[in-house]
Amino acid sequence: MSTGVVLFADPHATNRVDDMVAQAGRAYELGVRQVWLSQNNDHDAIALAALIGAAVPGLGVGTAVVPINPRHPLIVAPLAQTAQAATHGNFSLGLGLGGHEPERRAFGASWSNSIARLREHLTVLRSIFDTGAVDFCGTEISAQPGWPVRVPGGAPVPVYVAAMGPKALQVTGELADGTLPYLAGPRTIAEFIEPTIAKSAAEAGRPKPRIIAQVPALLSDDTDAARNFAAEQLSFYEPIPSYRKVIAREGVTGAAELAAVGSPESVRRQLQRYLDAGATDLVLSGLAWTDARAAEELWAFTGSL
C-alpha cells in the first residue's frame, strides 16, 4: 500500500458521485495510488469506494472510517465484499467506534459497550471474510447461519480500525489487519500504538498489523500562516476525549503541532518521522480541502513519495 490521500467532497458539486470519481481520476493521473473516503451523513463511503474503484482501475480505495454503530456486520460484510468485487481486489474496509453524542443526535440512541461491540463486530466480519460462513451469538451482536454470506469476487477484505486507546488496540490486534489512527504523532506511535497492537497480534497468532497513520497536511511557503490555518482547522478535535489523550501523550500543546505543514521538503521530513516511529503507511488529509489547486498540489506531492 502506497502513501494515500483523503478525498473530500465538493459541497457545491451538482453530482456528488461524478465529482468524487473525477477527483479520484485526477489524483491517479498525478501519481496517487490509494485514496480514502470518510463516512458522511450525506453519502455512503463503501458504496462510493466501489464506484470510484470500478471507474479508476488500479486505484486503491478505502473507507476512513465507517462507524460500526448502528451498522450490523451482516450489513457491512456484503457491502464490503461488493466493493471488493467491484474494485477487483483494491478495497480496504476502515471502521471506527463512533461517538456517543453524535449517535444520540443522529439516531436517538447510543451504544455504550464500545469495546465489546467492536470485538463482536470484528468476530463476525472475520468469520465471514475468512471462512464464508458465520454462526455467532454474543452479548451485543448475533449472526446466525442460514443464508449465503460470501460475495463471489469479494474476498479477502482487509479490515482496519481507527483504534487509539489500549483496549481498542488490543481487540484490533487480535481481529483486524491494522489500525488507522488520526492525530497520533510519532511519539504516540512509537511508544504506545506500535508495541500495543503488535503484542496483541502476536499473542493471537496473527501477522504484524499495519499502522496507517492519517496525517493532516498542508503545503505552503509561509509556514507560520500554514500553522495558524492548521490550528483553526484542527481545533474541533481538541475537546474530544480520545483526541485530547493522544495530544497529551504526544507532549504537544495543540493538534496543529501534529500536522505536516510547510514546504515540500519540510513536509517530507515531518512524514518520515511517522515512518521512523513505526507507521507502515501514510494517509495525507489535506487541510485546505476546499481549494482545488491546493488539493492537486498535495496529490502531486503524494504521488512523488
TrEMBL record:
Q: Does the UniProt entry include the keyword Cell membrane?
A: no
* Domain Luciferase-like residue range list: 8-280
Q: What does the record give under GO molecular function?
A: glucose-6-phosphate dehydrogenase (coenzyme F420) activity; oxidoreductase activity, acting on paired donors, with incorporation or reduction of molecular oxygen
**Keyword annotations of the record:** Oxidoreductase
EC top class named in words: oxidoreductase
Oxidoreductase in keyword set: yes
Reported EC number(s) for this entry are: 1.1.98.2
Pfam families listed in its UniProt record: Bac_luciferase
Under what name is this protein listed?
F420-dependent glucose-6-phosphate dehydrogenase
Organism per entry: Mycolicibacterium mageritense (Mycobacterium mageritense)
Q: Which gene encodes it?
A: fgd_5
